[in-house]
């Protein structure tokens, strides 16, 4: 009998210990993570009892709460909604939350650890709870210029602009966008109907193309990483020459590579690395990549941020640059094809790192967190993300990019700004064929920075489907995104 009682006692004690451990993990260790989870509907519902803090752009609220007469007490409003939707996301009591609404939920709803004593003080004083506001790094003139440039062309794609010296994100645009007000009313029926309509829209407005969603082949903008790896590792200089055929049969393959021009890279028997970047030639870049270790370029890509976890604090999908299996794959990967995939934010980071003398700053869209009594609760300071290349290498790559703009032959010349030294690189990515064997529309790229001598902005622009129906799905790589990039850079330089 005593043996049985001992067994039952020990079992109950073990169960008590397990329960105690579980409760401790939930209520203390994992509490913040569970509260911040966008699927935690209790957090969302509790947040409607609080006057949620505003999301600010240049001090003006673009997301804010207003009182209502219903049981929710407040309703979330966005103005102008679609312009800042890729930044703010939405806050909805039937569809959860996205964007900064999710990433900064604890601060906005007043439940963060930093606000613990404020909550106690407000409770003792009978003050209604209120969340802190989040000041973003977004520059309204740059955001508006980027969105307008994409809208004027009717483009689907994204624009990211970064301040190279600090990592501050000046613009984060994804088109087409959506109006978060459609998902933030206090009518669940309306929210569900609106969400279903947005989700079924073939243009995918809910997808944040700037930092997530389907990744893009980078095409020729990836050649900047090939050049950076070669120069940094001592395998080449801008004046290093390569064989200059009009066609190149890839090793151990029947596949033939050509330059976009379908001719040789310039008029000479050989072409320099500088010419290959300036004229965006495929064959010299492929020859260079095949002469290096297969991991050299992917390693450089990882140093710039590929395949690394990154939050800004919005979650960013990892860009990928796998190690090629052979020289043929190395050649194709070197021109931004094969399995190489990127976000526009990642390509903006590449240009920003080159502009900043080889140092990549951690990108961020949050500047400050401000309490309801207007105290700065958190100030986000510039933080180094990585230093993938030396200043000497950065200057060499920047010089080649500048030639791409300043030279009469350069494919990025349309991004030139009078009186300003601009560095730029275009790109056209092929996307394979459809079921009938027809080529799919190209993805068009531009990335660059200005001024070269004292960089204030680095930008990446991606345009899907060759510019879309208005351009017959075959738009020029150096016309459409380059013009967008120029307008975005001008918005900063004209301030």
From TrEMBL:
Tree of life domain: Bacteria
InterPro entries in alphabetical order: Beta-lactam/transpept (IPR050515), Beta-lactam/transpept-like (IPR012338), PBP_dimer_sf (IPR036138), PBPA_dimer (IPR054120), PCN-bd_Tpept (IPR001460)
GO terms (BP aspect): cell wall organization
Domain Penicillin-binding protein transpeptidase: 157-472
A GO cellular component annotation in the UniProt record: plasma membrane
Gene3D superfamilies according to UniProt: DD-peptidase/beta-lactamase superfamily, Penicillin-binding protein 2a (Domain 2)
GO MF annotations in UniProt: penicillin binding; peptidoglycan L,D-transpeptidase activity
Domain called Penicillin binding protein A dimerisation: residue spans: 52-134
Record protein name field: Cell elongation-specific peptidoglycan D,D-transpeptidase
């Amino acid at each position: 009998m005593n043996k049985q009682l001992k067994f039952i006692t020990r079992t109950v004690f073990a169960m008590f210990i397990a329960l105690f451990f579980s409760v401790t993990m939930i209520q203390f260790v994992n509490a913040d993570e569970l509260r911040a989870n966008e699927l935690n509907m209790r957090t969302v519902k509790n947040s409607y009892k609080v006057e949620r803090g505003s999301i600010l752009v240049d001090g003006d609220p673009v997301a804010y709460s207003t009182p209502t007469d219903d049981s929710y007490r407040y309703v979330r409003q966005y103005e102008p909604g679609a312009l800042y939707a890729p930044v703010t996301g939405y806050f909805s009591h039937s569809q959860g939350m996205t964007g900064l609404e999710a990433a900064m939920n604890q601060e906005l709803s007043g439940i963060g650890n930093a606000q613990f004593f404020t909550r106690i003080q407000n409770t003792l004083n009978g003050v209604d709870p209120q969340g802190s506001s989040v000041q973003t790094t977004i520059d309204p003139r740059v955001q508006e210029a980027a969105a307008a440039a994409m809208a004027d062309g009717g483009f689907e794609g994204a624009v990211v602009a970064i301040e190279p010296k600090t990592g501050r994100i000046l613009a984060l645009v994804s088109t087409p966008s959506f109006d978060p007000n459609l998902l933030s009313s206090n009518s669940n029926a309306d929210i569900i109907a609106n969400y279903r309509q947005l989700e079924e829209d073939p243009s995918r407005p809910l997808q944040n193309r700037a930092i997530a969603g389907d990744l893009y082949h980078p095409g020729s903008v990836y050649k900047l990483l090939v050049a950076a790896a070669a120069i940094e590792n001592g395998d080449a200089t801008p004046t290093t020459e390569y064989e200059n055929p009009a066609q190149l049969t890839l090793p151990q393959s029947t596949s033939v590579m050509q330059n976009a021009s379908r001719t040789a890279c310039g008029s000479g028997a050989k072409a320099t690395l500088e010419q290959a970047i300036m004229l965006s030639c495929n064959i010299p870049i492929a020859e260079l990549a095949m002469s290096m270790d297969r991991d050299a370029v992917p390693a450089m890509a990882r140093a710039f941020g590929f395949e690394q976890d990154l939050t800004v604090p919005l979650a960013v999908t990892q860009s990928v640059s796998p190690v090629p299996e052979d020289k043929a794959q190395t050649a194709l990967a070197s021109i931004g094809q094969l399995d190489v995939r990127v976000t526009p934010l990642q390509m903006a980071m590449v240009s920003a790192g080159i502009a900043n003398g080889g140092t990549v700053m951690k990108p961020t869209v949050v500047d400050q967190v401000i309490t309801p009594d207007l105290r700065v609760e958190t100030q986000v300071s510039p933080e180094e993300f990585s230093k993938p290349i030396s200043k000497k290498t950065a200057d060499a790559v920047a010089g080649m990019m500048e030639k791409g703009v300043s030279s009469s032959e350069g494919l990025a010349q349309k991004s030139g700004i009078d009186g300003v030294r601009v560095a730029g690189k275009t790109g056209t990515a092929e996307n394979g064929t459809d079921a009938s064997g027809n080529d799919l529309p190209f993805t068009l790229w531009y990335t660059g920075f200005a001024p070269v001598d004292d960089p204030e902005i680095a930008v990446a622009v991606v345009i899907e489907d060759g510019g879309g129906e208005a351009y017959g799905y075959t738009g020029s790589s150096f016309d459409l995104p380059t013009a967008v990039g120029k307008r975005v850079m001008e918005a900063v330089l004209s301030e």
